[in-house]
Amino acid sequence: xxxxxxxxxxxxxxxxxxxxxxxxxxxxxxxxxxxxxxxxxxxxxxxxxxxxxxxxxxxxxxxxxxxxxxxxxxxxxxxxxxxxxxxxxxxxxxxxxxxxxxxxxxxxxxxxxxxxxxxxxxxxxxxxxxxxxxxxxxxxxxxxxxxxxxxxxxxxxxxxxxxxxxxxxxxxxxxxxxxxxxxxxxxxxxxxxxxxxxxxxxxxxxxxxxxxxxxxxxxxxxxxxxxxxxxxxxxxxxxxxxxxxxxxxxxxxxxxxx
Length: 258
Prior knowledge:
single chain; mainly beta
């Protein structure tokens, strides 16, 4: 968790430094971005359709509970790099920006736990694994524009992922697995600033709760009926940087000198 806060703080520091530089008159592009008419919702620098790509770092926590009371409850985690693509649409009314965004992200998160008590002849008495290769979100965004080309926003909505869960008891040669989509929610925020007329950079952090699912397993091993009922829970955080291209945005042309 300390690593998560450190990475998120670093992203905000990068975004904050750029914001401060712009506020002091240091523009990445000559001249500010166009400002929407505050009396209408006819457009602005952040309005319209956009696409983008993002890279970052994240961590996922998994919790497994034996609801029959055999192995109790254990938690285990994994973290790593993530990368993805996103698209969305914004409406800008003066300084207010409201929009919708969806994304798809690759993240190889393989959470594993093994009982290392040594009570099973030196081998693990049981192992648990929760494997996720990708996650996706569909979110609303709402924010305020500062200095004409900097957007501070909050975001939240639906999150989902395909997760493979495996329960293994080697002493009984009992192994069961399932693969299923899990649905939950996400919330977070970020800052985005225009670099050129059609390009912008963003720093963003999300918390994702994928909820829980309970599965029942049954098998017969060596004439013995083996039954298990397991509840799997997953939540995660992601901090990332993105590059956005706004479709149809106009490049501003400087007026000729008179």
